[in-house]
Design a protein that fits this description.
The chain is an alpha/beta fold and 378 residues long. The protein contains 15 helices and ten strands. An eight-stranded mixed sheet has the order 3-2-1-4-7-6-8-5, sandwiched between helices. The chain has a two-stranded antiparallel ribbon with strand order 9-10.
């Protein structure tokens, strides 16, 4: 009877998630290459790129920005956030012969700011008064028409923010197993369709085009200066000023490598507990919820009997089917859908590790900085 109840709860939960969660798994919100109705007058744009010890990727990233085929005024500001590996020098060498790039040596981290947002704030201050600010990460490479597409969508649809979920690298075994699920879980939390209809505020931090005046009206980047999950906080902030848009893309790609299981785990753990508001109660609820959704179905299939096994099979099948569009987007085998329970278990472990690091007074480490240490909450 207990097994039947657990199976019924799991299947009911998956029916609700799949059919009543804004069809988050469809992957239909995409940045297509045929956006019509380009602007008559191309607005001015300044790209702001925060970078700290990004020597491995900065050349390709900055090179892709310099190569943008944008008809309007376009400048790039790289904020070198106290790098120790020659990031700024590599960027300057990449931009040799181009007048688009300015490299700004970042000031020491100010109290009350996360490192990335402090660098972004300095870049915005140096940008002056462009019509749009393109906030993009140092590990993202863009196709030459990316900015043209972003601006066209923002102007045509009157959006204060247009954001692209960059296509993440998916080559190593760890990446192939875990990265499509990372984007899928993000979409489950922040359904792209709901974001684009104004029901949820969110963004993807690797590529965000924001109207400067709307950002200033919202209080500037300082309004989210303590946010560890800065992209979603920024998207929520901008959604109060007007309509935002978020979509998947093949135009912008992440060039950061996650070759090991540990590196992917560290990436997840860096902000997982912050996503839960540093709440032990929410952590416990999340882990129990993950166990019901992902662990119970395969256990019922393997060890249950009768109706309980059938309910478990239904729940497992439903989650595997819902995962297929994202697997197709990342060109992964459909069989990875059956592995979703094991993938979710990895994410649950990384979430607990995130909380454990916080309780020990050391948040997820990134670029030599603790991202969420005990007592760091605003």
């Amino acid at each position: 009877m207990i097994a039947f109840g657990i199976g019924a709860a799991a299947l009911t939960a998956w029916i609700v998630i799949v059919f009543l969660r804004d069809r988050f798994w469809w992957t239909r919100e995409r940045d297509h290459f045929d956006i019509p109705n380009e602007p008559i007058r191309w607005p001015s744009v300044t790209a702001v790129v925060p970078a700290r010890d990004e020597a491995e990727v900065i050349g390709e990233s900055i090179g892709s920005l310099i190569a943008q085929k944008y008809p309007g005024d376009f400048r790039i500001i790289l904020v070198d956030d106290n790098s120790s590996d020659g990031t700024g020098e590599i960027a300057r060498a990449t931009a040799a012969g181009s007048d688009r790039l300015t490299v700004l040596n970042g000031a020491p981290l100010a109290a009350g700011w996360t490192g990335k947002l402090w660098a972004v704030n300095q870049g915005i201050a140096a940008a002056g008064t462009p019509d749009f600010l393109w906030l993009t990460d140092a590990d993202i490479a863009h196709a030459p028409d990316t900015l043209r597409s972003l601006v066209t969508r923002a102007v045509r649809d009157d959006r204060v923010l247009v954001s692209l979920m960059a296509r993440l690298r998916c080559e190593s075994l760890a990446e192939r197993a875990l990265i499509p699920a990372f984007v899928w879980f993000f979409a489950m939390l922040y359904p792209f369709g709901a974001v684009n209809r104004g029901r949820v505020g969110a963004a993807a931090g690797g590529c965000m085009l924001a109207r400067r005046e709307a950002l200033e009206a919202a209080g500037g980047i300082a309004a989210v200066r303590t946010a560890l999950i800065d992209d979603c906080a920024f998207g929520s902030l901008m959604a109060k000023q007007g309509r935002v848009w978020l979509g998947l893309t093949n135009r912008s790609v992440s060039i950061r490598r996650y070759d090991s299981w540990g590196s992917v785990g560290a990436m997840i753990a860096r902000s997982a507990y912050a996503q839960l508001g540093y709440s032990a109660l929410l952590l416990a609820g999340t882990l129990l919820g993950l166990a019901l959704l992902y662990l119970a179905p395969p256990l019922l299939v393997l060890f249950g009997e009768g109706y309980a096994r059938g309910l478990g099979l239904g729940a497992w099948g439903l989650m595997a089917i819902a995962f297929q569009p994202m697997l197709h987007f990342y060109r992964r085998s459909p069989l990875w859908g059956l592995a979703l329970p094991a993938i979710a278990a990895f994410y649950a472990g990384a979430t607990f590790a995130s909380a454990l690091a916080f309780w020990r007074g050391r948040g997820g480490m990134w670029k030599g900085r603790a991202q969420a240490a005990l007592g760091a909450r605003a």
